[in-house]
Amino acid sequence: MKAYVYRRYGGPEVVELTDVQKPTPKAREVLIKIHATTVTAGDWRVRTLRVPKGFGPLARLAFGITRPRQPIMGTELAGVIETVGKDVTRFRPGDAVFAFPGGKMGCHAQYRAVAEPENLSFEEAASLSFGGSTALHFLRKPISRQARKC
Question: Quick one: pLDDT band at residue 60, thresholds 50, 70, 90?
């Protein structure tokens, strides 16, 4: 499968499209064919290791001391389940899903295996739209003259 991979920290030039092994779902995992993903400020921070002052050593411990521990960035995806593990009970191939593997990343690829998702509470589901609606506000806002000069 194809994935965007980075093997060292740095600017956008360290990311390359390459072939990697397609994941195989474990017993309680689903394999998702990714149709959409996001590129966020978090991906930029992980790729460059530009973090707030004092967090550098912690970032290296979390993401990799000399090189990235997880070479495929991306923390959000939407897609369709292709295969399910033998112990998966709530999902079937063809189900449309979205997932957030968080710090495990790996969503800038064609496929991602994730644990069979749990049902969300009303509170968890309600909180999901904040980031998207915040971004949409700024995407719809006209660009000021000052911003155009930058």
Answer: very high
